[in-house]
Amino acid sequence: MNDSQNNALTAAEIAQLWTGYLNSSMCHCIFSYFSNTVEDQKLQSMLQEGLQLTEKHIQKLTSFFKNEGLSVPYGFKVKEDVHLTAPKLFSENFSLHFIYNMAMFAVNFYALSKTLSVRSDIVEYFNTCLLEVNEYETKLKQMLVDKGLYMRSPHVIPVKETSFVESKKFMGGLFGDKRPLNVIEITNIYTNLKRNALGKTIMVGFSQVAQSKEVGQFMTRGGDIAAKHTKVFSELLEESYLPVSMSWDMEVTDSTSPPFSEKLMMFMTTSLIALSAGIYATSAASSARKDISLNFIRLSAEIANYAEDGANILIKNGWFEEPPHPADHDELANR
């Protein structure tokens, strides 16, 4: 293989750069809106830092695409996708949680992107992004801790002895007595509980400001699904006498003015669905109790149907930006 082939971007590298552009442009829009509505000076400072990061990432990604002779993704634009004069849709405390979760997802995205990349300049770019968003996420987490808003996973006192499983009963059945949750299962359940509680509040807010009936109904359905999943995870924790207290229902204002375009809100929602599908799959694989893993599989099927309906809305409205793809040689041959 010659040098030009070695230096050409791989499909994985293009995929992560393209996805990174869409995500960064979306985050830039979200930061722009929140920076116009929040009053807390520390949060305002973090939003300005987020705006600087996303702007820098967008510029660097644009140069990558242009240097490779590839089309620059359209993504999202403040002028088109943000209503900067819209009033607060969420409380400032929830806004901080919102931004923190975006940063947390970015850490996971850049870690994966770095491992999928081979070309030195791409690896260096994603590594730099990972270091930046990791520091950003740490600052936001500390803000939540300092304000008494960070929701820690349950405290448990594990047994002190090291032991090995001696019975298939450890896996459990679907009915009858079940062993207590282990710390891996507690983590899986609690993490998904938090994420669905956050998602429910976002969906309530988005359904309230949606301008079209179709998008409004889609967001309402998403809120109902998230509420149902939250209940499932809460009951699993309660069965093991673990504390469950998580609701942001009062964190949505009475505003009906949309802060974002429906295109952006739909993209964010479908992105959260895709993220949920991946986390549910990992949680199912790492949960030893059969009833828990089957719950994750069952809930995954439900959000898969929801995701398909979301994709259809995006396509119908011309909002679904198609990822890069190679030429269709069969189509070219039949011209």
TrEMBL record:
It comes from the Bacteria. InterPro entries: DUF3231, Ferritin-like. This is DUF3231 family protein. It comes from Cytobacillus firmus. The lineage of its organism: Bacteria, Bacillati, Bacillota, Bacilli, Bacillales.
